[in-house]
Amino acid sequence: MLRFLVFTSLAALVLAELTPQPRYLEDDNVEMRVVGGEVARPNSWPWQISLQYKSGSSFHHTCGGTLIRRGWVMTAAHCVDRSRTWRVVLGDHNINSNEGGEQYMSVSRVHLHPNWNSNNVAGGWDIALLRLTSEASLNNKVQLGALPPSGQVLPHNNPCYISGWGRTQTGGQLSAQLKQAYLPIVDYRTCTSYGWWGSTVKDSMVCAGGGRESGCQGDSGGPLNCGVNGRWVVHGVTSFVSSSGCNATKKPTVFTRVSSYIGWMNGIMG
């Protein structure tokens, strides 16, 4: 369901313990989605946005993102670290048709995390903020995503869902409709152990899934929606999967841990 961009610059990346290379989950030429899972009920994740770039006279989906203030979107740095004309679509479900509830917003400024290095996704810092040219109108289809308190880390197997329009399987079909997949948290100790991601994963990241379902190309930048105390909280920004396959065994989808960046985001947004 989710999209990620796969950049050739990762080809030279050597990772510890010979784990498969991480891959971004968006692609300029291919639409991608969540692996496994199901089509989400329309607008059931009302903070989910489609990030699109202009090519010729048309816009094309490349990543997901989360509306966190009426004029601000959170996404992955690797989605927007090139100069392009971007737009954000709010309230969307089928990205191939206009269903009447969408809001189309231009992006006035891109704020990449200053430590982001496009040649090293495994280094972390894969987060960006987009300033919209106007403020979203909140309604039953468009809402703000709730963010966690700074530093919060969820326990192993905490229930979460990834949502997005990425590939439904490695090299597979694309999804026009927003999909969701159940990806429980994999704790840091497990995710960094031998045979899993090892030292590729940092404590500023969140692992989730590791089984049949995962994020995939086209899901990058989108939310990891986690159930916490009876509400949905966005704990992750979709970052990378294994180059050996989107749902490779013991290679859970890796997300930027939102709670590591609350101070930075508040500083940018004021």
From TrEMBL:
<keyword id="KW-0964">Secreted</keyword>
<dbReference type="InterPro" id="IPR033116">
    <property type="entry name" value="TRYPSIN_SER"/>
</dbReference>
<dbReference type="GO" id="GO:0006508">
    <property type="term" value="P:proteolysis"/>
</dbReference>
<keyword id="KW-0732">Signal</keyword>
<keyword id="KW-0106">Calcium</keyword>
<keyword id="KW-0479">Metal-binding</keyword>
<dbReference type="GO" id="GO:0004252">
    <property type="term" value="F:serine-type endopeptidase activity"/>
</dbReference>
<dbReference type="InterPro" id="IPR009003">
    <property type="entry name" value="Peptidase_S1_PA"/>
</dbReference>
<keyword id="KW-0378">Hydrolase</keyword>
<feature type="signal peptide">
    <location>
        <begin position="1"/>
        <end position="16"/>
    </location>
</feature>
<dbReference type="InterPro" id="IPR001254">
    <property type="entry name" value="Trypsin_dom"/>
</dbReference>
<keyword id="KW-0645">Protease</keyword>
<keyword id="KW-1015">Disulfide bond</keyword>
<dbReference type="InterPro" id="IPR050850">
    <property type="entry name" value="Peptidase_S1_Elastase_sf"/>
</dbReference>
<dbReference type="GO" id="GO:0005615">
    <property type="term" value="C:extracellular space"/>
</dbReference>
<dbReference type="Pfam" id="PF00089">
    <property type="entry name" value="Trypsin"/>
</dbReference>
<feature type="domain" description="Peptidase S1">
    <location>
        <begin position="34"/>
        <end position="270"/>
    </location>
</feature>
<dbReference type="InterPro" id="IPR001314">
    <property type="entry name" value="Peptidase_S1A"/>
</dbReference>
<dbReference type="GO" id="GO:0046872">
    <property type="term" value="F:metal ion binding"/>
</dbReference>
<protein>
    <recommendedName>
        <fullName>pancreatic elastase</fullName>
        <ecNumber>3.4.21.36</ecNumber>
    </recommendedName>
</protein>
<keyword id="KW-0720">Serine protease</keyword>
<dbReference type="InterPro" id="IPR043504">
    <property type="entry name" value="Peptidase_S1_PA_chymotrypsin"/>
</dbReference>
<dbReference type="InterPro" id="IPR018114">
    <property type="entry name" value="TRYPSIN_HIS"/>
</dbReference>
